[in-house]
Amino acid sequence: MQTLTRFLPPIYVTHENFEQLARLVDAASLGPRADVAARLDFELGRAELVDARDIAPDVVTMGSKVIFEDVDARKWREVELVYPHQSDSELARISVFAPVGMALLGLPQGEAIHWPLPAAGARTLKVVRVVYQPEAAAGLSGLRRAAPAP
Question: Which domain holds residue 121?
Answer without folding.
Answer: 3-134
